[in-house]
């Protein structure tokens, strides 16, 4: 990686005024030195409208060329002769609008947030680098109810303070109806969320039948003691296909459905001064797309249409250390895996099925001024498929982020 750091060093010098964040640049929980980001507020008699967002530039050198997502790390046999690639992107910049209005049921809060990970039809690195606006969050919250699109209640509540995502990420954002009860140290949620079945067919291809009939149901408990933070979520799902298409001209002989279940525990333990240990773990039969950005399916379907669920699991462990009030580091390791159903899969197709993936990340994050962050991170991940072939990717990431 010496070559990658050499290529990035001019960028570090030019951008030292404030660089990219980790997932918690706006974290303001008691005992954390991170500061609130500023906002612009417009007021009427009852409603307050807030405008804000962030400017985000990431400069990444990957070796070999490829993606850090668990299911997309290039296999070594497919990247022979490949050297690394340096690329820069501002697509993770965001804009949001929020409102809050007092009502007889309490304060009504609404939000619309977008980023620029949308349509790439007119995008190119030769001239314009244009990208489409993409919807992230849109919801209203009132009297304990959250209705709209936002992060799933199954997501880990304790996120890592890293630039790149963790390999076992449980980030899902989707339409939902959620009811929450918040007490001083405890909070409880019940959430009914958009279902989406993913299955592996006999050709080792992941399919989405689009035959879902029951929402994913999630129960979550959150606890905020003086020593840190804890959450536990349990999910029930109905994985189904209603004579889905095998291909454009053939359908399965019969419909089938199976009930799946999954669990997610996340934890933060405060240690010395502002330091902390962070941990999470997931397990489920039919967990599927909720783990590692859809690297694994919820189950398999044979040529007659019979569904068999498969087990998936993952976890990460990290330590975050504050060198001073402006400088901090995180060291993290993570892992995700599944038990694929291989009964009908031919040996030639095993490269299509992810078996497991592991990773490590270490960074240095600097906040020179309020709302700004400069970060440098080294990441390495190893992906293994069912044929036992592997792929290794290394990243050196430089990021500038400013929240306004």
Structure overview:
The protein has 404 residues and is mainly β. The chain contains one helix and 22 strands. The chain has one helix at residues 2-14, and strands at residues 40-43, 48-63, 85-89, 94-103, 106-115, 134-142, 145-151, 173-182, 186-193, 199-200, 206-207, 216-223, 228-241, 256-270, 276-285, 299-301, 307-309, 311-322, 327-338, 354-366, 372-385, 390-403. Strands 2-4-5-6-7-8-9-12-13-14-15-18-19-20-21-22 form a 16-stranded antiparallel beta barrel. Strands 11-10-16-17 form a four-stranded mixed beta sheet, with no helix packed on it. It is globular and about 60 Å long. Mean pLDDT is 90; it is low at 1-31.
**Biggest sheet record:** 16 strands, antiparallel, barrel
* Beginning-to-end CA distance, first to last residue: 34 Å
**Average pLDDT value?**
90
Beta-strand content estimate: over 45%
Oligomer: single chain
| Number of E-type strands | 22
| Contiguous helical run count | 1
Which CATH class? Mainly Beta
Order of helices and strands: HEEEEEEEEEEEEEEEEEEEEEE
The CATH superfamily appears as Porin
Query: Which residues form runs of ≥5 with pLDDT under 50?
Result: 1-31
